[in-house]
Amino acid sequence: KNENLNPETELKRYFGARAVLGDQRPRQRNRQFHRSTWMTNPKDSWPRFSRPGISMPLLETKEGTQYFTFEHSREYQQVQFKFLDAVESMDPNNIVALLQLNPYHIDSLLQLSDVCRIQEDQEMARDLIERALHSFECAFHPLFSLTSGTSRLDYLRPENRAFYLALYKHMMFLEKRGCPRTALEYCKLILSLDPDSDPLCMLLLIDFLALRSREYQFLLQLYQDWEEHRNLSQLPNFAFSTALCYFHLSQQEEVDHEESNKQRHKANQMLQLALIMFPGVLMPLLDLCTVQPDATVTSHTFFGPKSQLEQPPALTQLTALYVGRTYNLWREAPVMLWLEESVQEVLHRVNDKDPRVEECQNKVNMLIFSPFVCRRKQRYQSAPRNIHRHVLLSEIKEAISSLPLEVTTQPVMGFDPLPPLDSLTSYTRPQRQRAGSSNESTLSLFFRSLLPNFNLQEEDVEVARAGQELNQELNRLLVAMRDMLANIRFQEPPREDNELRDEEEWD
């Protein structure tokens, strides 16, 4: 349902409508007219909305699925070129100036949101993302659906990628805000836009949001429906999270004793299988949970350091992602006790040379989670670009540190991280004369520091002084930006007819 995309729906369920809405009665005087949207609630503090030059045509319909794309008008393309110039200048002031003239330019909103978030101004960062989503939603085609699961957007088109990223960033803000159920709906939405390619790898995140929002049956149903053609059991996050789902279902009070025993037996089986398939998960998980394992576990070759050192790099990334994201879900006392029992049982099976252990580690699967190959020890030798993109967006340092050099040594910008190598470009940026390089300002140094290959060559004293000046200048910039974004007003064009004309523009 569309209303499930509104976080107020979830907050009202937790705290009641009065606590969420308070005494928010709309003031009739000086009240702006806003188009009704599902994803965001436009704020009176926002600049007056005018269409920025984004449209959404329907490309084709095949077998009940509709394929759309966003398009940029000629005027919006010119603004986009200026934005790319501003990014290359390495000076956020230029982006702020661009946004002042074009307050609903998407990529400027995304990039400045990252700057605000890094400076821990979460409210402003979230506000900029919401404004970007509002701009997109006002451009939707009448047939485009957020919840039907039949609307598609090709990530290969640059105009579409900003919508994916805005949804992702909004989803993460919702999760941190304490709205995991709403965040889960956004995760489903992103996955539905391109379920085959899954360009932002929502399958590596959806289990976490389902557990956070206690949507256990949904996750198990997804696992059952998709396992045959997507081989989800070969992903560490699904292997462990589905087991955790069965465990929580067995603990629910409304479940009768017999059903509870069935769920617990299933949980035990799946957790032991997950530990056998991915033994390198255990020690990092216990470490983040601040749990000291038994000596019989740490000294055993199956779970010891060897299990992590022998992991292929791509599997190490997936392991670090899962552990860094979900360790808090495993810290509960009943869950940890259950994990301990399962670890001991797995060690018994390993010591007894259970053939199932060897079978799991050398299992051949005819169904492949594209584009991995079949055998477990070969499957994770290299990860596709969408997983690298997901790791960067996750900001989980352990996973980022395991990325290959070819990823970490290239510039990565927040408005389009790791763009596909086979992008479908609808318009190209004109070539221009490049001015001679000038000395970098402290803000230029800050923008360079957003890149993975940031490496200053100055002396330590100069770096310290630059860092101090940077902090002062950036704080002044953010204060000015907040003031500008909150108070910017545009002169109304002369009207030739009645006051209802503005409202008619939305039709």
Draw up the topology in text.
Elements: H1 7-15, H2 17-21, E1 54-55, E2 58-62, E3 65-68, E4 71-72, H3 74-88, H4 92-101, H5 106-118, H6 122-137, E5 151-153, H7 158-176, H8 180-193, H9 206-212, H10 216-230, H11 236-251, H12 257-277, H13 282-288, H14 295-298, H15 305-309, H16 313-326, H17 333-351, H18 355-361, H19 376-379, H20 385-394, H21 397-400, H22 405-408, H23 442-449, H24 460-487, H25 501-504
Parallel strand pairs: 3-5
Antiparallel strand pairs: 1-4, 2-3
InterPro entries: TCF25/Rqc1, TPR-like_helical_dom_sf
Protein name: Transcription factor 25
Pfam families: Tcf25
How would you explain this protein's 3D organization?
This protein has 507 residues and is mainly alpha-helical. It has three domains: 1-24 and 33-196, Tetratricopeptide repeat domain (Serine Threonine Protein Phosphatase 5, Tetratricopeptide repeat, Alpha Horseshoe), CATH 1.25.40; 200-419, no CATH class; 443-487. The chain is 55% helix and 3% strand. The protein is built from 25 helices and five strands. It has helices at residues 7-15, 17-21, 74-88, 92-101, 106-118, 122-137, 158-176, 180-193, 206-212, 216-230, 236-251, 257-277, 282-288, 295-298, 305-309, 313-326, 333-351, 355-361, 376-379, 385-394, 397-400, 405-408, 442-449, 460-487, 501-504, and strands at residues 54-55, 58-62, 65-68, 71-72, 151-153. It has a three-stranded mixed β-sheet with strand order 2-3-5, with no helix packed on it. Strands 1-4 form a two-stranded antiparallel ribbon. The longest helix is centred in the last third of the chain and has 28 residues, at 460-487. The radius of gyration is 25 Å and the shape is globular. Residues 23-34, 364-378, 435-464 and 488-507 have low confidence and may be disordered.
